[in-house]
Design a protein that fits this description.
Oligomer: single chain
Shape: globular
Number of domains: 1
Order of helices and strands: HEEEEE
Strand content: 25-35%
Largest sheet: 5 strands, antiparallel
Length: 99
């Protein structure tokens, strides 16, 4: 699934706490989810080691598309932990884009 970046309005990490996210995963196949998990782990290594930011593309529960520039500090099976303690459910992430 490819989305043009122009369709994703940018949001600040501080706004994530007020957003609601889908209960189901936004990616359809296990292969897509596996690739996303690998990219998320890579992002956490880059973020915690080099403080590198990346673009996160995600959906909210209302189906709205969003883009976030952030540094990923940590990741587990369910959540990306971003700078300043913001958290983003991994199930809402469409893709991660490294600069």
């Amino acid at each position: 699934m490819t989305h043009a970046p122009a369709l994703f309005p940018a949001v600040a990490p501080e706004l994530l706490a007020r957003m609601h996210f889908p209960d189901d995963d936004v990616l359809a196949t296990p292969a897509e989810r596996y690739c996303r998990a690998i990219e998320a782990a890579h992002a956490a290594v880059l973020g915690s080691t080099y403080r590198g930011k990346l673009a996160l593309y995600f959906l909210t529960a209302d189906g709205a598309q969003h883009r976030l520039q952030a540094c990923v500090w940590a990741v587990d099976d369910d959540v990306l932990v971003l700078q300043k303690g913001a958290a983003l459910p991994l199930r809402a992430v469409l893709r991660l884009e490294f600069s």
